[in-house]
Amino acid sequence: MGKLITIIAIIMALPSYQLMAQGKSKAKFEKYKAGFYQNFILKDVSAVKEKQNPGKSVKKFEMDQSDMDLPNNLNAYTENNYWHFDPVSQGNTGTCWCFSTTSFYESEEYRLYKKEVKLSEMFTVYWEYVEKAKGYVASRGKSVFDEGSEANAVNRIYKKYGVVPRSVYDGLNDGREYYSHAEMAREMKTYLSSVKKANAWNENEVISTIKSIMNHYMGVPPTQFAYKGSNYSPLSFLSDYLKLNIDDYIDVLSYMQQPYWQQVEYEVPDNWWHNADYYNVPLTDFMKVVDYAIENGYTITVGGDVSEAGFSRETNVALIPDFDIPSAYINDNARQFRFSNKTTTDDHGMHLVGYHKDKEGKMWYLIKDSSSGSRNAGPESPIFGYYFFSEEYMKLKIMDILVHKDAFKSYLKKFK
To answer: Which three-class secondary structure state does DSSP give residue 253?
Structure first.
C-alpha cells in the first residue's frame, strides 16, 4: 500500500500537461488469482492450510498488457539464449540469491568447459546460515539473520566451503518435492533470540545448535563424495573438477548514494556482512555492461525489484508504464529517487540468460527465475519459470549484477 500511495502522490504532483502527455499505458484492477505458489508449492507444505473466503477478493492495481504485442515467447530468443538448465523452483524459501547465482555458475561452467553440472543450491544455503550465525554472535545480535542474502554470498561460500553437485546433496527431507524453510528459519531465529536474551554468546554452542536444526530439516552436508568415478571434497570439486576461479567474478552496482567509480557497500539488509566490493557506475555505463555481456556470450545474475505495476504474472513481462514514468525520463535521478523512498527494493535475484532486439532496436532480456510468480503459466507452458524484461525495466528497477570480470574489463582501469 505504501508504494501505491507514493506513486499516486508523484502522479498528482505532475503538471497536467505532463499527465496528458504520458497517458498511453492502460491500467486495470484485477482480482487476485491463485498461481503456481498456491496451486503447487503451498499444497506441498503440509503446515500451510488456508481457507479462502469467496466473499472477499484482493485487487491489485496493475498495468493492462492484454492487447500489447509482446516478445514473451522463447522463440524470439532462440539465437541469443545461452546454455542453462531448466528453471528450478526455490519453493517456499527466501533463497533466490542462491538459486539465481547457482544457475549462473552452472552456465559459466558450460561456457568455459562445456560441462553440464547441476550444482547444489542448498549446500551453499546451509553454510551461509552458519556464517550468518557467526555474524550474529560476533555482533551480539545486531547482524541480520534471515533467509535473504546477495549473489556474492555464493562466491564467499564457494571459496570457504566449496560446492557439491545437487545429486550429492539436495537438501530435501521428508519426501518433499518443494523446499520449505519457514519452520526451520523460525526455529533458528527463536533460538538466536534466546541466546541474545540470555547473553549466552558462546560461538561453538550457537553454531552447533544452528547446525543441528538445519541437519534435521535439510540433512547433513557431505565432506567427501564420489562423482563420475573420482572422490572429492567440496573444495577440491570446485578447484579440480569445476576449475572455476571465483576471483574472476565481480559485482556491478549503480546508485547515486555512494560515489561513482569507486568500490562501495551495497546498503541493503541482505548485504548483512556489509560487503563493500561493488563497482559503482552511472546508469548509462551500467546498461552498457549489461548489453556488452549478454551480446558477447556471458550470462548475468541480476538483482532488483519485481513488485511493480508493470510486472505482470499473466504475461510474464516486466514493463515500466508511462503512468509511472515516461521512458525518456528514466535516468540516475529517477532510479535513486525510487531506491531512496523504498519504491525500489532489493527483493529478488534472477539469472539473465538471453536477449532479443525488436524491430525498433529495443532490447529485451530473457530472465530465468526460481520464484513462484514466473510459474503461473503452468508446467506445460514453455515460458514456465521465465520472465521477459524490457529495456526500461532493467534501467529503472535492476540495481546490481554479478558477471565475469572480462565483461567489465574496459571499466576496471577507472577504479585504480
So the answer is: strand
Grid cell 554452542 is found at: 205
Distance (Å) of CA 346 to CA 89, 157, 228, 270 = 20, 21, 39, 8
- Please tell me the pTM assigned to this model: 0.87
Q: Are strands 348-357 and 300-304 parallel, antiparallel or unpaired?
A: antiparallel
Cβ–Cβ under 8 Å, residues 279 and 250? yes
Specify the 3-state DSSP secondary structure of 288: helix
Helix boundaries (H) for 68-148: 96-113, 121-138
In this structure, what are the phi and psi dihedrals at residue 195, rounded to the nearest 5 degrees? -65, -45
Give the dihedral of Cα atoms 322, 324, 329, 335; nearest 10 deg: -150
Cα–Cα distance for residue pair 106/329, rounded to 1 Å: 37
DSSP-assigned letter for residue 77: G
Q: What is the pLDDT of residues 269-310, one digit of tens each?
A: 999 999 999 999 999 999 999 999 999 999 999 999 998 999
Rounded distance between C-alpha atoms, residue 169 and residue 177, angstroms: 14
Q: Any idea what DSSP says for residue 221?
A: P
Burial of 68 (0-12, 13-18, 19+ CB in 10 A): middle
Q: Are 306 and 348 in contact (CB under 8 A)?
A: yes
Q: Cβ atoms within 10 A of the Cβ of 379, count?
A: 9
Q: Over 70: is that where the pLDDT of 365 sits?
A: yes
Map out the domains of the chain with their CATH numbers: 2-84+247-415 (no CATH), 113-242 (3.90.70.10)
Residue 54, beta-bridge partner list: none
The string of pLDDT tens digits covering residues 88-103 is 999 999 999 999 999 9
Residue 370: count other Cβ atoms within 10 Å of its Cβ.
Answer: 27
DSSP state of 165: B
What confidence score (pLDDT) does residue 38 get?
A: 76
